[in-house]
Specification:
Four copies of one chain form a homotetramer. By secondary structure, the first copy, chain A, is α/β, with parallel strands linked by helices. In chain A, 27% of the residues lie in helices and 24% in strands. In chain A, α6 links the parallel β9 and β10. The radius of gyration of chain A is 20 Å and the shape is globular.
Chain lengths: 345, 345, 345, 345
């Protein structure tokens, strides 16, 4: 089969690989029909993710059809159309039982990281019963690719952790794909304001089309000042960090109102300054989270009910044998205006 | 009347002052029968609290008897025995209506800070209806002095924010009065373990007597290592910071388990390093809070029901004209083993 | 001034009455510019509300202008445009401090019940600081009349108590004004389905226009069967009772799914059969509530942000001297298709 | 092997049966070392549980040693000491993923009901990975038998659903084993008062020994009146129904304070009168629940930490070949003062 293989920092190739086989009775082999590329894949290609070793097939998102199910799999059978979660969950360990699938003792984010992933014709998915989801009759497969990772990430790490509620004022720092996913899912809770902050003009235009009520084209102190002005000095109830660099976290510290929440989504490579000398008495909460995908069933229902249109995030479409072009378009988002690129088998 | 007056960094004096008068219809004048000294009073005396100007009568804790009630006061009348909350709350503003009395638009922590306080024979208490509490029949006044500030602070900022629950593993960094108040109130929720961390041997002995299950006599990396060992590498569900310096916050970052909470109580004068490069995917929460005293009615009930004995915290007793000695004993806690010192009229 | 006065079961009259005066320092006198009629007013006129004695001016909803503020009122002054809450709240008692204004020791639902109400040119509002709300600049007064009672009632008793959440299936039994208020505010939480149940065809048409996803024109067993069919035998996550008779509560018992909630809004005059022999192991919750109006600030923000259009509920408009016609139109809703009737000064 | 077999209403026998075999790859066969009898077993013997057919081995509680593990079982192996949960949970279905194991699509309460149970030398446990729990080193097996059903039932259905909290006033109607289990676990949350209500003097004596603060030896109206007197007319924050008959539910309706909760534990065979004409405006919640055993890990920790002593509930001990005597003692509790009887292999 064709597969996109990581060969160490800066190197990747589309190669022929054998179709994966069941290794564990709880595995399934899924024939991928649609996959996509995540910002994290670019991190891997920069060499930032040491758990991902050269030789690994990349990708942790996708939908497809069950090709073969292991003997212990009871919820799926060959031929079932499925959504592949970016998080593998055994359903049995302490963390899975608490709904923290991200910290599953034998799962978590392993696809396209510790084991071969979804940017291929086939993928082996461990813990299939509790890591795959049936695709509802009539659902749009392309749309559902957005439910493997980006929508639950924006929703769980940003919106739920950020306690977005009706009438609230929300700011999202970073209008890339993940910030936009938070923007789309924040609207489930009818906040009064969603202020998007990004230096990129095009992304802010997209954000307005996706439901932002205000935008701030700036970063750093200028962004903070603009938000404080827009909120008449009050600050925001929820500040969502969707970049992953110290400066945008500091913006969140600067703009969060007393009693508010900073919900971090970004993948951080460096420590940040936490200004407790200003925040110790502000009654705030700061949350971090690797997506658990515990809300996938809920999100499937909202997509089916047309409460959200995940396809808004899809800007480019490729075939699997064009995946190098897809990477190119996705990694040059500033020029291509790419958000999510869908790769069909 | 006698009053302890702040005269700028390093200076204080017991002086004669006029008995305060009602300024606003919602005020009450309370004759103080028992007050105490808070670590924050020492901060003021170091010059760390710019809102507190020279000439101010210190003190934000106490119980007493209503001497006079303003014309708009309906819940209290002269002669009523009352607990004075360290937080003044108007009960009307947005923050008070949300239960965040600490951020009351015209109140918050003002006693012994922005206005004259309780280390005197009399004090003027603004917003009396919503900042005083009736002392239940038969209650011990000395015990209730601990409900002005220290117990609600340990409970709200440490225990409630830290989401302590049955069977949980809790660590408290700092076994001073405020850490011990968190220790006492954490036991409302039957955690499996409460690990107290402090370099001071005597304080840890006190902690064991107060219900700690384990102690770590160390600070910094050594403390973190010891806690990780005690928890078999798992870390703690709740880490309570009860010191207010960067090193103890870092300990909390080091020992919090995935899914856990760091509840900050300490008053910080400096920023701390937040290691998001390690914590971004750990699904943790960090909380800060100035006590709201919103749990004072609940705490009064637990004291009345003998679920907690606040007098455990009282180590020394003085009369108001010995208050300079009381400050001396309290500020030299390492030698005197002082926790809370009660000052009677 | 003109006022609509209750004269015992079946009797009411528009009469001349003296303008009310401040009785307590916390009172305000409000000149009413817009008021409305509530289903509860009809209950009073049937003699069902013994606390409301003959001679009482009816009405507990309205907006207006502060005419005079008592000496203890600090948040409002003459000339301020205000929303009058149907619930008077002292802000000081145990229940007010817990956010249960409905059970305020000296307030609760007293307007147009235990004291004179708002269907008049002027009204005396006790506890003005904590029972009136400033009308935001540019807000539509007619729209805000819906925030005195009907919208917080639908929202708090139906939607919040019913724990409506994204992707959920909600059924509302009763498509009268209060059921429609629940329908409008349920959409803050993006449920997948909102099934409206009512025997009246016109009301269901209105419901579809207001955002219902499905309707059931039936009552009793037929309604339950239809809902179970629509939900493929699963039942609903939230069943909201918005009528106040045993049959509609039974419908809720029949259709609630395991783990679901029955949120009662209706005012009941009779006991109902609770089928614990079927429900004891279904893990359900049943809630009751008199509106607390604790969400009024939140609702004001959602109206200002155009997340909801309260004017959808207004079908008829009258002047105060036509109030008997207004009562006539409102009480014959089946013919007039009246939802809420607004009465302007 | 020896097994206690149900032979239709009123009939049971200790018989020889073949040792069960693995039927499904997720099964385990457990050699039972200790089991017990539940009130529900007596219900079955009265013919009240139609899902339990003649020929069934009874019992849904017990601890033991894994004799054989099916090929899909990964968390347990032969020789492991285990606690058997009364609820079988697949860990995969919608309800299991939501923590509602009681409604597991292929599990729930099936042991000793729809399939053979634990009152035998061996039992087949379906979904072993997610329905058994490892027994911690050094734990007392007899004590842990109380964690199969009675303690999680009292805790989840009574204490958690009842939202018991520090300083609260709790009433428990029924001081039988399940009411006492609620009493023991309610103390995790430091309520101010726990009032036990039962007509049986001996049970109330036991209750006082177990931590009740007050008792009411009465039923019906007399019980309600006594509780209202004890609470100075205020009523209770949490009323726990632990009997399962209409009269005790009515007592709960009579004594619940505004804002309070009625948490039903009892198994009801008849409908009850719900006095909505009195309760519609009281802001109460009523909950029902079949135990999910989702708190078993938490309870294991509290037992290990000695926060609770489950052995308090054990009054009688028998060997398996004396199980008919054990049933006799348990079913004549009024004379024998039996609470829980432990049956050793």
């Amino acid at each position: 089969m064709k597969a996109l293989v990581y060969h160490g920092p800066g190197n990747k190739a589309l190669e022929d690989r054998p179709i994966p086989k069941i290794k564990d009775a709880a595995d399934a082999i899924v024939r991928i029909t649609h996959t996509t590329i995540c910002g994290t894949d670019l991190h891997i290609l920069k060499g930032d993710v040491p758990t991902c070793e050269p030789g690994r097939i990349l990708g942790h998102e996708g939908v497809g059809v069950v090709h073969e199910a292991g003997s212990a799999v009871t919820a799926f059978k060959a031929g079932d159309r499925v959504l592949v979660s970016c998080i593998s969950s055994c359903g049995k360990c302490e963390y899975c039982r608490r709904g923290m699938y991200s910290h599953c003792a034998t799962g978590g984010w392993i696809l396209g990281n510790r084991i071969d992933g979804t940017q291929a014709e086939y993928v082996r998915t461990p813990h299939a019963d509790t890591s795959l989801y049936h695709i509802p009759e009539g659902a749009d497969e392309e749309a559902l690719v957005m439910l493997s990772d980006i929508l639950p990430t924006g929703f769980e790490c940003g919106v739920l952790n950020g306690k977005v509620e009706p009438g609230a004022v929300v700011a999202i720092v970073g209008a890339g794909p993940i910030g936009l996913a938070a923007l789309l899912t924040a609207q489930f809770y009818a906040p009064a304001e969603i202020i998007m902050i990004d230096p990129d003009e095009n992304r802010l235009k997209v954000a307005m089309r996706f439901g932002a009520t205000k935008t701030v084209q700036a970063a750093g102190d200028k962004a903070s000042e603009a938000v404080m002005k827009l909120t008449h000095g009050r600050g925001v109830d929820t500040a969502i960090e969707a970049v992953g660099v110290p400066a945008s976290f500091i913006t969140c510290e600067d703009i969060v109102a007393p009693g508010g929440t900073i919900a971090n989504i970004g993948v951080h490579g460096h420590k940040v300054d936490l200004h407790l000398e200003k925040l110790w008495d502000r009654n705030i909460a700061i949350t971090t989270r690797l997506v658990d995908t515990v809300t996938t069933p809920m999100l499937l229902k909202t997509v089916q009910a047309k409460k959200i249109d995940p396809k808004l995030l899809i800007t480019h479409r490729f075939k699997l044998d064009q995946i190098l072009e897809a990477y190119d378009a996705f990694s040059k988002a500033a020029q291509t205006h790419a958000l999510k690129v869908v790769i069909a088998a």
